[in-house]
Amino acid sequence: MKARCVECGAAASLAAKPMRYACHCGGLLEVVHDFGDADAERLKDLFHRRLGERHTIGASGVWRYKELIAPELPDAFIVTRNEGNTGIYGPECVREFAGIRQLWLKAQSENPSGSFKDNGMTAAVSHGASLGYASFACTSTGNTSSSLSMYAATAGVPSLVLVPDEGISLNKVLQTLAYGAQVAAFPGTYDDGIRWLNENGEKNGCYVCNSVNPMRIEGQKSIVFELAQDLNWELPDWIVLPGGALSNASALGKGLRELFALGFIARLPRVAVVQAEGAGPFHRMVDASLSTLIPEPAPRTVASALNIGNPPSWRKALETLKLTAGVTTAVSDAEIMAAKACVDRSGIGCEPASAAAVAGLRKLVQGGVIHRDETAACILTGSLLKDTNAINSYHLGADYSEAPWRNGIRRVKLNEEFQVNLEE
Ligand SMILES: *Cc1c(COP(=O)(O)O)cnc(C)c1O
Asked: Which phi-psi region, left, alpha or beta, contains residue 85 (left: φ > 0; alpha: ψ -120 to 50)?
């Protein structure tokens, strides 16, 4: 596996230990493929035939596209849970809420650990295994750790997860514990955790699976591959996704660039990255046309997965915007929760961070940036069940313990006076 630095362009190899996550200059690495004379039509056929596979790596919605993700990786090292294979839906109520002609929701929430992190994590853990690592680590606001601990458990190897001691969702930490990871909480932010692992992960024998790991980006490309394949290789006018550490925005851009260069798609969609107002350094940078990102020292949003003040992948995400004439926006916590209620009500559901995409789409349509006659796909990054506190405070009121049946649930007596009335 070859890589290059996205800042200075220097070449690097990812083919042997020790794993490299960054260039000597400090820039992030990105995988470089030699697709040679890859034939898009032949590969489309192959990817299509694999849709019928059940017990091979082709049954995974990531490894189905192995030729575009990690062609050199020996199959024997692949650690998979048949991730991907997620649905695309077009619920009328959410389309109406967004105010656009046609809307797709790509439900990465349907992944085995409940978030899109599985798309990247299967690639990272498999690559780490192929290099001979026997333990894995990450720092995370939640979903990365759930995903890593799930794949480590699948492979039967230990994992270490560092979690900031506030601003995270309890459900995700519980999921991580249940999969058997060693969890260590520290006072500080996600950014402090990244710094520690960068300096100390290798020393401790760990393959580090944070979003800066270039293999995670390779795996996450499969989200747009699958979306494109499901839509018969014609993508909508816009793809809208939430931005935290910006790995997903980076992967989306790289995936699109490769699909376009190889001739899988004839036209590039535009990309909109949506941040939370309380954690929106990337949006502020783009909005003010600054040339560098100014970290947000105290990020705060109800969307815990977006609670990141210093997104490491901002340069790659900026490339995505350049490639696709992309835009950014930021939405308030109230806008996020209103969009979440709508997505939940549609029967699909998502966690707050995912709803930011829908809230952002609505805002961009209302602001005239996206025309109501255009078409869009929102990436729903994580499952409804990931953050039950958010559901609790929205539907039952903040002090649930004191007034258990406040808003969402009415009290009834099961006697002859109780009548079913579902029209209300
Ligand atoms: C990680 C995550 C995000 C943010 O993705 P980045 O790649 O960090 O920008 C958004 N939503 C959910 C549910 C996530 O788990």
From this structure: left
Nearest CA to ligand 1 atom 15: 143
Residues 108-112: what's their mean pLDDT? 98
pLDDT tens per residue, range 271-310: 999 999 999 999 999 999 999 999 999 899 999 999 999 9
Atom of ligand 1 nearest to the CA of 381: 13
Do residues 381 and 242 lie in contact, with contact meaning Cβ atoms separated by under 8 Å?
yes
What percent of the chain lies above the pLDDT cut of 70?
Answer: 96
Taking 70 as the threshold, does the pLDDT of residue 167 lie above it? no
239 with 346, same domain: the answer is yes
Order of all β-strands in the sheet with 207-208: 182-186, 159-164, 136-139, 207-208
**pLDDT bracket for residue 75 (50, 70, 90):** very high
Cβ partners under 8 Å of residue 229, min gap 6: 44, 47, 48
CA of 305 to the centre of ligand 1 (A): 5
CA of 246 to the centre of ligand 1 (A): 7
Print the domain residue range for 5.
1-32
352 lies in the same domain as 272: yes
Residue 34: its pLDDT value, please? 94
CATH of the domain at 262: 3.40.50.1100
The reply to whether 330 falls in a domain is yes
Chain-centroid distance, C-alpha 345: 22
369 in any annotated domain: yes
Mutate to test the pocket of ligand 1, among 118, 217, 381, 386 (most ligand atoms within 8 A of CB): 381
Instruction: State whether the beta carbon of 381 lies less than 6 angstroms from ligand 1.
Output: yes
Same domain, 301 and 365: yes
Identify whether the C-beta of residue 262 lies closer than 8 Å to the C-beta of residue 44.
Answer: no
CA of 326 to the centre of ligand 1 (A): 18
- Distance (angstroms) between ligand 1 centre and the Cα of 148 equals 14
**The total number of structural domains that make up the chain:** 2
Rounded to an integer, the average pLDDT of 382-395 is 89
Q: Please tell me if the CB atom of residue 114 comes closer than 6 angstroms to any atom of ligand 1.
A: no
CB distance 241 to 317 below 8 Å: no
pLDDT tens readout for residues 211-225: 889 999 999 999 999
